[in-house]
Specification:
This protein is 34% helix and 19% strand. It is of the alpha/beta class. A 7-stranded mixed sheet has the order 3-2-1-6-7-14-15, sandwiched between helices. Helix 1 packs parallel to helix 11. The structure holds 6-O-phosphono-beta-D-fructofuranose (F6P). 6-O-phosphono-beta-D-fructofuranose binds next to strand 12.
Amino acid sequence: MSEAKRVGVLTGGGDAPGLNPAIKGLVYRASEFGIEVSGVYDGWRGLLDPAPEPPALDRERVRRWDRDGGTNLGSSRTNPFKSLTPDGERIDRSEEVAANVRRLGLDAVVAMGGEDTLGVAARLSEKGVRVVGVPKTIDKDLAGTDYTLGFDTALRNVTEVIERSRTPAGSHGWVQVIEVMGRHAGHLALWSGVAGQADLILIPEHPFRYEKVFRHLRERMGDPDAAVARDPERPRYSVIVVAEGAYAEDGELVTVDDRHDAFGHARLGGIGEVLARRVMAETPFDARSAALGHPQRGGPPSAIDRVMGMMFGARAAEAVAAGEFGMMVSARGIAPACELSLVEITTVLGKLNTVDVERHYDTERYHMKGIGM
Ligand code: F6P
């Protein structure tokens, strides 16, 4: 058993539904071990510049948090190993984080986040900070776990939009392109595309060919003049889901601008519009694009994210109580058929969990393998 009496909890990176349930699960289970939980605001930024008195999170305070989306602790993409100075220089301030953890009387830190936030936790762990990680990201791209908080809610949100995009597209007879988040992983695009029954799904793991996309559209929609004749047997529209990180064989990643964050990531976005324009220029079909953006991760957590969140948080409390530091909570399967364990937090460093193209992606049909689309 560990001697931990007080643990800090922070949430870093993009907000995701499931974080607040995870904080609740942590607080509730920790209280059974007599461990107090302090909230750290705004991810790692909150340990570089801590609030004078971090808020005590007790059972009463977090009782209703399971229903809340986002994160009630706030978040940031702060990287203490590459902190930005007013002169625009990046410097290593990780020692300050370690010192603040001691000064605040925190015996350990539970970090809830994705590749970047947990990557920082892994490196701090090597410096002697006692950490436990909880996996979170709508991208579901973290190594070492089958589930990351936020994925199921984002899947629900995106699927709803795909479904709703069908009526305008069908009424006007156009190609609707839906651009979905996920960074360099196509899980969210692929699963939402299948659930919403998109006709084509383009993912980062397999660069696509424009010619092939256009051929599929022609096969599905036929001659636009026939479409005007309203042949009831023939779909007049098509829905294409494109992951923000997808790119053409002869193209490149499309980004919002040239800037990079403290972890070296560019903001992806724009491939949907590029694709829609090319459809209009190179086929007889009209097209529209919608980039779903941040609302994909918005709204209350789904049932799965509530359950997985509370389970993850409770498992993190158990790890702290048992003195199992430098570890991340990991799921095999999804609730209720789910086994939780701990894996080394360094597992998240350097590799991503992306779509297994060989197993799950039909590179001819640009769809999920094995479901006949
Ligand atoms: O990692 C989660 C995510 O939503 C990605 O899917 C997306 O590329 C990125 O965050 C967007 O970053 P930001 O929230 O900083 O705009």
